[in-house]
């Protein structure tokens, strides 16, 4: 067994873990970043960063990684729906909400993570790929063990950041369990050969029993998403699943029945999963270990704020570690309080988005019609939609009052 030392060990080189490694190494700490993959590959993760997430990336010093990794700015947001003729659909200019950040970014997740890991190395961090059987033992001097093809290794650290995402590998080892709720199912696929879809336009919409999303990327590629009822969770299983997934974008509500999408070809794996929200049963830290990103709890992915949250976590935890020598759990109390406030607002917003756009059938269709009419008359009815674009703390408080959602749907009737 080899034994080594580090100030911080980061377990998981997804967006939050890689960004934290960059910031901490640039700040002068010795950092080891552990990743279970032997190479960064497309595992189908979130690939959309809100303008407030862009601000977080800038503060972390990793914004250039997105540009180098092929990020595209989404300037227009169009919501198509079977209740609205395509020619009457309006677009939203997403660059106006945080002008200094511009519109959201759409990018290949694994490519950006790889570039972040390379930046961490350039700043002095050590990145270990193919790190398997990772075990974390918390304490005032936490210990991390892992295996590589070269054998068993031990790291003795001052702090461990758990950033393994939804698998919550580190969280489970320190006794954190999650209460999960399933909100229907979702799927995602990278495609190439996109037709004449406008390069700076992202789409969201609902028709029949699917909610769909289109996020263009470079060179005629796009990440497609669909949400659908749990009863249809096997609809894309087996041979031809990716092709059926693409074909389901032939929708009446899209211009030319979605031909710009249906001419595309699969360019990566198709992933299908239950859409979950998770809440931890206890504080997501202990002596020597702090959890960040989805490992610390997540909202329904229908809201699309997971990456922005991971970067916020990486920044705020890094500020504690770089701000002084007190790394005891009490030093992270402001981080936990801010995260609880933020996630409470995001859970609230995700419930509204899911009820509006990821619910199906005649009743849901009529609800979208009524809320659409209300929103056209009263901008305040759209307030929680700002959560896709601006930081949760900057969304007006009335959108999170006890009766807002009830009044939104009731008054729309």
From TrEMBL:
Source organism, top-level taxon: Bacteria
Domain FAD-binding: 6-319
Any one GO molecular function term: oxidoreductase activity
UniProt EC number: 1.-.-.-
Nucleotide-binding is among the record's keywords: no
Keywords assigned: Oxidoreductase
Pfam (any one): FAD_binding_3
Matches recorded under InterPro entries: FAD-bd (IPR002938), FAD/NAD-bd_sf (IPR036188), Geranylgeranyl_reductase (IPR050407)
Transmembrane segments: none
Protein name: NAD(P)/FAD-dependent oxidoreductase
